[in-house]
Structures are given as structure tokens and as C-alpha cells.
Amino acid sequence: MREENGSKAYAELVGRGRVHRRFYTDPEVFAEEQARIFRRVWLWLGHDSQLRQPGDFFTARLAGERVIVARHTDGAIHAFHNRCTHRGAEVCPAAAGNARNFVCPYHAWTYRTDGSLASVPLDQGYGADWRSRVAGLGLEPVARVSSYRGFLFGSHAAQGESLETYLGPQVRAAFDNLVDRAPDGEIELAGGKTVQRYRGNWKLQLENSIDLLHPRILHRSAIDAADRVDHGGQPPSIEWDIVKSNGLTLREWDGMQIAAMPGGHCWMAGFLTKAIDENALQARYRKMMVERYGEERASQILAFNRHNTIVYPNLFVNSRVAQIRVLQPVSVDCTEQHGYIFRLKGAPEEMFEASVRMVNTNNSPSSIVTSDDHEIFERIQQSLAGGRHEWVDLSRGLEHEASPEGTNELPMRNQHRAWAQYMQA
Amino acid sequence: MIALEQWHRVQQFLFHEARLLDERRLQEWLALYTDDAEYWVPYAWEQQSPQDHVSLFYETKSLLSMRIDRLERELSPLDSPMARVNHYLTNVTVEGSAELTARAHLLFVEHRREEQRWFAGRSSWRLRPRGEGFLIAAKRVDLLNADQDQGHLRFAVPF
At A385, is the secondary structure helix, strand, or coil? Predict the structure, then answer.
């Protein structure tokens, strides 16, 4: 890439119905993606419910950089780099907690929960202009922080469109629905998180999550195993359901509704079996929703049936089951997928427990579903490194993007068109 | 203090379980579990409950059976080629009388696709006597790095 003319050359990696293999394998492309995409867009940081009290904080990663997100004594939420402005040590090693101050363990430079520098030992030793320098020695703030319905996002770019504009109406609807599904109108992040690591490019998971042609084929071993389970007259478990649901026929997958939106976002309709809707627990929950919202509004909320809403470049929102997954690219050929669960306030606790069990089965490193996906990503990553074929085919449905069938690769092309736009801008 | 013979019997049973896993005799392995057995590998260190927090594995016998069925059908790319595994158990202790609690330290080595991975952990079992032997009513494996920040690559074979 070096000898060519930078940004234009990157965009040429995305062709009509195909992408060049360097799109997945070139470390320079990866570095450029970090600068041009991940450092420009809004990225999900966490949720309001992690910061209930002043002093509450959590640490997170924003485009690969370690940041602290904290609620200050005045109630405002601040995000700043987890790096002492003195000698660069990590200031806060904890994943979450409550703190009055953040004290660097190396020389005890001490910061308030808004990131400002509170005190420095023996500060008379730093010269006559020390007083005037202190103001600039707070922890480096994240350029922008914003939230939508309690979902906190950060951006390294000081300028750019607002979070609401970035998400757009169809993505916002996914967040709205996740919150609205709580009878008390409030949700909380709970139950820990899963972290699956695979040695492949981050875009492979992004594409796979909207690839409706693969489940019946790749996940066949799990589907077949689910088919042979004898429930002994008992209602099936949520774990079974998430495995079994992949077993739609190819025709059925092709009949699913999908949508591609501006900015690379997309969504697909729900596909879990009816078994998870038609049981006593769901009936009890539905009654609570009707009491809270009235019949018409409750029906409307519960009828919102998307499996995934995929927020470019790295977030998957599963409103229907109150889960979120986020991709953390580590290097061109290594990615972490972090999975989180929300508790719907006012809903039966068993629903939260079912979400926990569903995540165990679907998003733990022991998953009998996504493990096969990650295995394939690693094989793709290895084989794309060599051979004579320069291009990867993504042409399925190219001629009928206006009314796409379920297995149309439109959403992937839509992701890649957004990629090309960011990379040449 | 537990009788030497009892301790020996439990230890032989645990070694037998490990060997069935190592030799891929997975149906025989599953037959060691009671119908209401619980198999649990927590995600957090000193995790209190599998109900309100995610787990690396939290499975009933039915789910374990589905997992094994899948591996035995040899259709999963995850398991082809098959992983070779060794389970090493040390520091075995036994408590209780009617229902026993056994504890051991675990070293788990897995070889697959030119890579060898090592895991250390602490295992515990609730054992119900059955004839001369036992059935496993519950097994818990706490990996020292269960909650490591960078996550884990995939696990195919249980611990």
C-alpha cells in the first residue's frame, strides 16, 4: 500500500461484490482502520446502571485504548484515559468499583473522578510554573462522551455527528425496544461478561452475524444433536432452543427479513422457536407488560422481533433477549468478542436467569454454536494469507438489493461500503 | 478422618473419570453422572452462583449429552482434528460419609492443530455411592484463569 496513494488505494480493496484478501490480512490496513474508523465513530462503552452513585466507575476499552468511565460528585459522567500524566502508569487496575480519587500507584499523583489532578506529593519540586501547569495535567479526557437511553458511547474524535444521528432511527429503535421491554422502564447491566477470543479479523464476525446462509450448514452438528434430545415431556431449555433455532431450512432462512441502513448498520428478524414465547413464564411477563403499558403498547413492544441489530463497526444489539455483544479488535488477525446481559427491571427474575443460560451456551468459549464460527474464521484467516485468489466473493443477491431475500449478502456489502467511505474520507 | 481404603476408592474413581475423558469414551464418561447432575465451570473466581452470573460451562446431563452427541458425530469443525487431552489430578482429599465431597487440583493439557494449551484449576465432586463405586451428582472446576481479561479460545472437551 505504501507506494500507492494512501486512502484511494484502501477503498479499492472493496470491489463490486467482492473484497480483496488484504482487507482481512494486511496489518497496515488494520492500523489505518483503527485511525480512520474506530477513532472517528461512536463506540459503545457501557451502561448508566454501572454508574449509580457519585464515585462509581468502570474501566473499558475504546478503540484499543484503556479508559476509565466515572460518575463525578456533581453527577456528570466523565471518560478519560487510564494513564497517569506523570510517567504513564495505569492509574486504575480494577474493572469497576467506587472511588473518591484515583491514585497512581507509582508516585501517588491523585486524580478526582472528573479526571482533574487533585494532588501531587512534594509538588514544590516541580518548578516555579507548577501552579500554571496543573490545570493541563488532568487525565486526558475522551474527546466526546454521550448516551442514548442509558447506553454510554465514547468517541476519540472531537468533531463529528451526534450520537443520535450516528445511530439513526432504526438502530435507536433497537435500544428503545431493549429498554421498553422492562416493565419498570429500566434495565441494568448484570451477570458478568463473556469473552471469546479468535485468531481472525474482526470483520469476519461482523459479516457472519448477518450471514443467514451459514447456520443450517456450519452448525449442523449442534442442530442434529439438538434434534435428538428427548425432553421427556418437560418444556425445552433455553440452551436447547438457541441451538435448535439455527436449524431452519435454507428456504426458511431465505425467507427471513433483513435490512441494511446508512452508515453500515443492519438488522435481521428474529428466529428463535416459538417455544421460548409460548410458556407460562412468558405469559406472566406479558401480563406485567400489559399492566404497565396497556394492551396496545405492550403488544407493540413485544412484537418487535429482531434477532440482531448490528451497529457498525462493532456492536450487536439483541433487544429480544436483552443482550449486547461488542467486538474488540486486537490485531489484524486477533479479535475479542465481549458479551453482556441486561436485567429487565420489574420482569420475572427467571427471565434474567434464562438470558444468563442462553449466553453460557451461545457466547461462552465452550459454546457449541459460536465455537464453530470462530473455528471457521481462523481457517479463513490462515488460508487468505496465501494462494493465487486475490478476491473474496460477496456477490450473492447483488442484482436484487432493493428487495433482499434473507440470504442476500447486501448487509455485508453495506458494511464494506461504509468501510470504503471511512477509509477514503 | 476418612479411611485409607475409602480415599483410595474415591481416587481410583476420579482417575477413571479422567481417563474416560482422555480416551474419548464420552458416553461412558456421561454414564458416571446422576440424571440430576450439575456440571459447572464458573467464569468468575469464587463465583457464588450459576444462576445470576455467566459460566464457562453450566450444564445438566441433557446438555452434556447434546454436547457429546455433537462431538461423536464428528461433523463439527471445532473438533476436527480431534483434540488430544490429558487430565492430571493431584492433592486429592475426601470428606463426608453418605454423600462424599472430593477435591483435587487439576492440570489440563490439550493438543490440537499444532498447538498445546495448559490450564490449571481446582476440581470438586459430590459423589453418591453406587455399589462398589460412585455416581457424580455435581462437579465443579475452577480454572485459575477463568476470568482472564483477554478471554479464551474455544473449549471442545469438558474438564
Answer: coil
